[in-house]
Amino acid sequence: MSERTIVITGASDGIGAAAARSLRSLGNRVVVVGRSPEKTAAVARELDSDYLLADFARLDDVRALAETLLERYPRIDVLANNAGGIMGKREETVDGHEKTLQVNHLAPFLLTNLLLDRLTESGASVINTSSVANSLFAHFDVDDLEARRKYSPNRAYGNAKLANILFTRELDARYRGQGISAAAFHPGAVASSFAAGSTSTMRVMYRTALNRFLISPDQGAQTLVWLATSVPGEDWQSGKYYYKRKISTANKDAYDAALATRLWNQSAAMVGLQADR
């Protein structure tokens, strides 16, 4: 197999960096995307890989990232939308969107859409990092995506991770026939800086002695690496949600096709794209 180009966001730390190391060791060209200049450059140097910077709390950064990717890479075989995190008190970005929603869902939604022509030409796989939080914390209200009526860090994060799965299902419904494969996955509870800036009760697991029960970033990256290196349609089914390389059960709302379509169209409007269905 010739060298494949794999773009990984959120690759300066945690499972993104671990996946980048594994995928580079297998002979792939890995494009490391991160927010921190120092950490992102360090991972890229280690791997002798290209890197790009983007802060997903700024949609103009996402637009610039997409433009650079299209300029530099005539083929993108895998787009791993891995950047994300759980936040603290409700905060709006410079774009006017609730930060959890934007960083975890709107930004990767925009990036994927801006790259769609290249992804379809490449027969690419789009891999979205979700979380079991979609089942534990989500109370999804498509009429209040910005969480203006009711907000907590856990609920906002759970809703965003459910949005990742709905996006995966709708991306598959719209573009499987054009050659794109899509999957979402739960990496597990990974020992990383994931909840460092959060006021969520989840931070207790990450910041105290309880973190000994967490898995390593390498373990958390295993399903991402498997999805990126195996064959959709043979080894895994497009449009599904995975945990430990197996199809997993998500929040019941994840199976609502009408909700997935509505979320896509509302997300498109929120990031300035035209809804096409």
Query: Which class best fits the helix and strand makeup?
Result: alpha/beta
* Mean of pLDDT: 92
Can you give the helix content as a percent range? 40-55%
Order of helices and strands: EHEHEHEHHEHHEHHHEEH
| Beta strand % | 5-15%
The Rg value, from CA coordinates, equals 17 Å
Number of helices: 11
Largest pleated sheet: 8 strands, mixed
By DSSP, the count of extended strands is 8
Kindly report the spatial arrangement of strands forming the biggest sheet: 3-2-1-4-5-6-7-8
Shape: globular
N- and C-termini, Cα separation: 36 Å
Unreliable sequence segments:
none
Question: Could you characterize the architecture of this molecule?
Answer:
It is a single chain. With 277 residues, this protein is of the alpha/beta class. It contains eleven helices and eight strands. It has helices at residues 14-25, 37-47, 59-72, 99-114, 116-122, 133-136, 153-175, 203-207, 217-220, 222-229, 257-270, and strands at 5-8, 29-34, 50-53, 78-81, 125-129, 181-186, 240-243, 246-247. Strand 7 (240-243) and strand 8 (246-247) form a beta hairpin. It is globular, with a radius of gyration of 17 Å.
Topology:
Elements: E1 5-8, H1 14-25, E2 29-34, H2 37-47, E3 50-53, H3 59-72, E4 78-81, H4 99-114, H5 116-122, E5 125-129, H6 133-136, H7 153-175, E6 181-186, H8 203-207, H9 217-220, H10 222-229, E7 240-243, E8 246-247, H11 257-270
Parallel strand pairs: 1-2, 1-4, 2-3, 4-5, 5-6, 6-7
Antiparallel strand pairs: 7-8
